[in-house]
Write a structure and sequence with these properties.
The chain is α+β, with helices and mostly antiparallel strands. The protein is built from one helix and eight strands, in the order αββββββββ. The chain has an eight-stranded antiparallel β-barrel.
């Protein structure tokens, strides 16, 4: 009988220890989360740019290296804006662009939409970068952007630039 009672006592003690460890680690985790939340500035959810389908267009303003499309050249792409409604950071995928397929979209506290991408969807900015800033204009977002990228000019690699007008318009309106 003593062995049965000892076995039950050991099991109960073991369960109590596990429960105590879970409680302590959970409380520590909550303390850390509370501290992080208290240290973070109060950023309200944005309401200007919901996830969904969009038309994304650029129109060339000017470029260097003579390898960019001529001034006024327009490119159009269907874009998916993926993320949580209200989030200030989302991802935009251009469905028909091999050069700039993946963008990070950030909505500032002043509701300016900033898009940034690395050429070819890569991670190395040396491949080339593109960045735009847009503001709300009626039923769309308009602004300007710039691209920088390496290109061969006269047999030498040169850093080229292209400035463009940008437009982002919801397709579900």
């Amino acid at each position: 009988m003593g062995n049965v009672r000892t076995g039950v006592t050991v099991r109960c003690l073991g369960l109590a220890m596990v429960a105590g460890l879970l409680l302590v680690s959970g409380a520590g985790g909550l303390r850390g989360e509370r501290a992080a939340a208290q240290g973070a500035p109060d950023i309200k959810p944005q309401t200007v740019l919901p996830p969904g389908l969009y038309l994304f267009q650029t129109r060339t303003r000017e470029g260097t290296c003579n390898d960019a499309p001529r001034t006024g050249y327009v490119t159009s792409a269907i874009a998916t804006l993926d993320g949580v409604p209200g989030s200030r950071v989302m991802t935009m995928q251009l469905l028909s662009s091999k050069y700039w397929p993946t963008w990070t979209i950030t909505v500032t506290d002043k509701d300016v939409i900033v898009g940034s991408a690395i050429m070819g969807g890569g991670e190395d900015e040396a491949a080339g970068t593109s960045r735009f800033e847009l503001s709300a204009k009626k039923d769309r977002f308009q602004g300007i952007g710039n691209r920088t990228y390496p290109s061969k000019v006269g047999g030498e690699t040169a850093q080229c630039t292209l400035s463009y007008d940008a437009l982002l318009k919801p397709l579900d309106d």
